[in-house]
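FAQ
Q: What does a multi-component entry look like?
A: The components come first, one per line:
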Amino acid sequence: SQTIHQWPATLVQPVGSPLSLECTVEGTSNPNLYWYRQAAGRGLQLLFYSVGIGQISSEVPQNLSASRPQDRQFILSSKKLLLSDSGFYLCAWTYRGDRVTYNSPLHFGNGTRLTVT
Amino acid sequence: DQQVKQNSPSLSVQEGRISILNCDYTNSMFDYFLWYKKYPAEGPTFLISISSIKDKNEDGRFTVFLNKSAKHLSLHIVPSQPGDSAVYFCAASGALRSNYKLTFGKGTLLTVNP
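Then the predicted structure of the entire assembly, as tokens:
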């Protein structure tokens, strides 16, 4: 069966510090990978998605970046965190090449709670 | 511009009664709709979905209804149980150039009282 791992579960970082969140998927090959963020009082906002190694699509311009160095690894980074970067970050996957459909939903990890102080 | 809207931030129902969560969308290119359930400090879990070629999909206590002409869908939970208390997100996919991603609403917090 497929599993998705995110770490760390919680993180407190000062403004201006760098960020690296990691996500890995097991049990499948060539998944589509996603980073979403849930800010306080808001819904789930898509930040980045990737349909293959080195292929990153950015949805929202900001000071975050994403990379996919390996097939089942997705990394979210920042060189200098802002207070507005605080939120709950979620990694997700779906089967490669699939549209997100009624029988091919996104599967989420347990998230990272980031607090920028 | 919010393409998927959940206008009720919260809903409270009694155990055993029906819970109805609503969702509206604006983009007529959406053709798949999904509901996710989220507990605090956890990732969302997929609950039920529907294709735009259908108007109803049922899975146990959960039923999703789709009204394409009104661009409206709803999730019915019957009977509601305390363990159903969570945030429910409506999501859509299929819009032009958006085949690989989901657009989410802001969620509705459901509280089922014993």
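Q: Is there any commentary attached?
A: Sometimes. For this entry: The mean pLDDT of chain A is 89.
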